[in-house]
Ornithine cyclodeaminase
Amino acid sequence: MPNKSEVLLLSEEDVISTGLTMSQCMELVEEVLRARANGQTLSPPKVFLDMRLNSEHQCDADAMPAYVKYIDMCGLKWIGANWENRYKRGLPNVIGIVILNDPESFVPLAIMSANWLTAMRTGAATGLAVRELAGKGSKILSIIGTGYEAKFQLMAINEVVKLDEVRVFDIDRDAMESFLRDADQTFSVNIIPCKGVKEAVDGADLVVTVTSSRIPVLGEDFVPDTAKLICSIGTYNELGDKIVGWFDKIVVDTREQAKSEGALADWFARGLISNGDIYAELGEILVGRKKGRVSEDEKILCVLTGLGCEDVVVANRVYRIAKERGLGKTFRFF
């Protein structure tokens, strides 16, 4: 590497303008999950910082470092949330950045906005899970939570399943109306707004929960009647205890992190599930070490809490494209 420290700074607009497609993002995420299953990445569990514990700040954050050997790149995603940002400050509720570093000298190579990037790679992981775990002939999707990431979930699932109908629900009516306006311009599938969770999931083949709820939004009072796959996305406790008796097996993106983040963490803490209840990591299924769906009757719970290695590979591609196209601004670090 040259003995200089020129850092590329990429805004959210710069990152989006690289034009990375969901199909390309799914290829990147699949490659890195396969690599992780074969020991070619270092991607430790998130470090969680909750500033609400000893301050008046309503903000929490995750630090997600990773090294990916086959692209020889290391980096960190630093992402936090304050759910009052939008209406109090006119800012996104979630704000993230990725820092890419040269793994030999640790000189920073790029600092980029990571909101769109996170939504893309999160959707990509769900798309891969649906491809491997959904039942044949799945046609009806239910999405619970219609915030920023919901559109990307639908984008990815639409890559792998021919949907007839999408049912959506959010307690925030403005968020649902915004999603519907955007989706009507983006997708050709029939999208139906629902008045509650039960209405949204009854009759669905696939259910995706993508909320910021700290209390269960599904499985508290009832379980889906027809769904054969539930995907819970992110770091929050979205699932009620009735789901414990619903699933035949659990698939995660990372066993270790599932104990402390996301929908399974509370169940682990209360002894409702144990290590033996985790059937496989998604990467193990992608490399063929474990089978995905083995019967059409099987009910599968898939919990994806997100990995730093996913962010690093997508950020690396964004960085390369941006350099080729002259996007962003550069500055000397030293």
Remarks:
- The first strand starts at residue 6 and ends at 10.
- The chain has two domains: 6-117+309-332, 132-307.
- The domain at 6-117+309-332 is CATH 3.30.1780.10 (ornithine cyclodeaminase, domain 1).
